[in-house]
Write a structure and sequence with these properties.
By secondary structure, the chain is of the alpha/beta class. The chain contains 6 helices and 7 strands, in the order αβαβααββαβαββ. It binds S-adenosylmethionine.
Length: 219
């Protein structure tokens, strides 16, 4: 579990104001404050993550250790990260803690916005949201989740989204290497009638990971 902020989501997914006109799903939301901060600015957002089944008290207990693990992984691979966006490691850590606190407050106040569910099966109606954002789940865990799982997961997110599905980053955790099945996966999705593109975004933390995958239906 990690806890990125609304500002990080805006950058990772190149989100413009008009992108937030409808309902946005943060899939694999973890302890991100995206939903909490979106709500504060009048944006309708919800999150899905299997971990929400544990309940807020367990998540609150677990979050500090998960954040420590993430920090240790970054310290151990320092040459694989670039710091321009954050400015410093300290600023990044502060953002994680602040976002985690906002998430914890929000899930307690608005539990209905946090759905305990996991890809590749989301218990949501087709076309029920306007955009799906997926941060640091697909591709990040490509060492464990294969091309077929990614195809099913993206097909499922596309089923419930009237608009785009955006996925960031496109590299693996740890070594930050590109995922070797990205091109074949896009071919799979195009064969299902979906439209895919890889787009540059104004955010790079893992060295070389400055692109997102967008998936939508044919107009
Ligand atoms: C690295 S965290 C990213 C959290 C958040 N999106 C962020 O960027 O800070 C990955 C999240 O994906 C969730 N996850 C794992 N398997 C999942 C699945 N099958 N479907 C949806 N989310 C899943 C994990 O529980 C975890 O919270």
């Amino acid at each position: 579990m990690s806890s990125r902020s609304f500002a990080e989501y805006r950058a990772m997914f190149a989100i413009g104001d008009r992108d937030l006109d409808g309902v946005v799903l943060d899939c694999g939301g973890g302890a991100s404050s995206f939903v909490a901060e979106a709500r504060a600015t009048g944006v309708r957002a919800l999150a899905a993550d299997p971990l929400y089944a544990l309940g807020a008290a367990v998540l609150a207990d677990r979050l500090p250790a998960d954040l420590d693990r993430g920090n240790a992984m970054i310290d151990a691979n320092a040459d694989r990260f670039v710091w321009e966006w954050y400015g410093s490691a300290e600023r990044r850590r502060e953002m994680r803690v602040d976002a985690g606190s906002e998430f914890m407050a929000d899930i307690r106040r608005h539990p209905g916005s946090y759905l305990a569910a996991g890809l590749p099966h989301l218990p949501m109606a087709g076309d029920s949201v306007d955009m799906v954002l997926c941060s640091h789940l697909l591709f990040t865990w490509a060492g464990h989740l294969d091309r077929e799982w990614h195809r099913s997961a993206i097909t499922e997110m596309s089923r419930i989204s009237r608009g785009e599905v955006r996925v960031f980053p496109l590299v693996r955790l740890g070594d930050g290497e590109p995922v070797d099945f990205l091109d074949a996966l896009q071919a799979d999705l195009r064969a299902e009638g979906l439209v895919c593109a890889v787009r540059r975004v104004p955010y790079e933390f893992q060295r070389g990971a400055g692109h997102m995958l967008t998936v939508g239906r044919r107009p």
